[in-house]
Amino acid sequence: MANNLDDIDSEGITDSPKKGPTLSTSTSSFEALDPHDPNLSRLATTMFNKTADYLYGELTSTLEDYKLLENMNKVTATKYSDMKQIANSVENSMVDLKEKYDMLQPFLEQIDQIEDSVTKLEQAAYKLDAYSKRLETKFKNLEKR
User: Fold this and answer.
1) Which residues of the chain have pLDDT under 70?
2) Which of 37, 49, 58, 66 could form an S-S bond across to 26 if both were Cys, CB 3.0 to 4.6 Å?
3) What is the pLDDT of residue 90?
């Protein structure tokens, strides 16, 4: 290991007074009072600004996604509320319709009974008509004799 350090010193790499041998003073850990490479500082600042912009964009995108989901949930809740009102209205209409049907039920039964009576009367009328035609035919036959 000592040979490696000697080789590094011989290649022109200087030692940091606080940290030992380094490749350059600009790559050593930042110490407030130590001089540092302004190019490296500018690049670091640029990197941090761009990273901050990227993270801000990511967080903004996520926030917008959550706002969209919130709006979608509100619209869906409104739709379900409307559908619930419609369903309640249909239910009330069905209850009213059933009550009206129940009130009309006796009259409907009377109509059915009247229809049965009319059907029986119609059959009796046809039988009477047929009988009267037979009698008429017999009467005409008797008159001819």
Assistant:
1) 1-35
2) 37
3) 97
Q: What are the tokens at 112?
A: 């059915």
Greatest CA separation found in the chain?
Answer: 164
**Chain length of the chain:** 145
Residue pointed to by tokens 């996604």: 65
pTM of the model: 0.47
> Which tokens sit at 91?
């239910």
Kindly give, in sequence order, each residue whose CB lies less than 8 Å from that of residue 8, ignoring residues fewer than 6 positions away.
Answer: 21
Rounded Cα distance between 31 and 37, Å, is 12
Which DSSP string do the residues of 82-128 spell out, in sequence order? HHHHHHHHHHHHHHHHHHHHHHHHHHHHHHHHHHHHHHHHHHHHHHH
